[in-house]
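Q: What would this chain look like folded?
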Amino acid sequence: MKNCPPASKFKTVWFGLIGAIALAASSALADTMTADVVPVGYTLNLYENSSTSLTYTYNGLATFTINNTGIDTWTLSVATGNCTFFLPQTTDWIEPEDPLEVNRVTSTSTTSLSIISDAALLTYYGGAITLVADGTPVPWGTDGGVPLSIRFNDLAAQNEANNGVADTGSTLVLLALPWVGLVSLRRFRIPRLA
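A: My prediction, written as structure tokens:
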């Protein structure tokens, strides 16, 4: 009478467990990876922190001022750098928490922008509109002859949605992992003597 299962069953269990761990790790890694596009030239990064806070970073020559004109509305103007020119256009960045709302940036002149957050996707203000995902850089003009892109980053999405940390598929995989191990080990019960 055998009290130990054959070695091949142990190999199957270990390879199964290693495979489950590798799947969980790759799922967690895939949830954190994004395609980060780096535009040529300068990039004006706009960061919406809340419905009343918009900040920016810029790797070009000009400086800008941002004025909050109401809840979810701002104006951005060139403070220094006479050679910054915004093209006449409108771009809608899709809200991360609601695909029917957008963060809309519109040129109001060659040196100023109007920014509206949480605007309805179906509203139209005229002119050409580009619809892109949150965080996507869009060519917008020039600064001293160098191409300038704008990227809108909605950091306020989590506050607006009032959810804690977003749950991802990797959490479910990690919760299922112990069950896979228990089910696999259950196959190797020690037979009882009659």
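Residues 7-33+168-186 form one domain.
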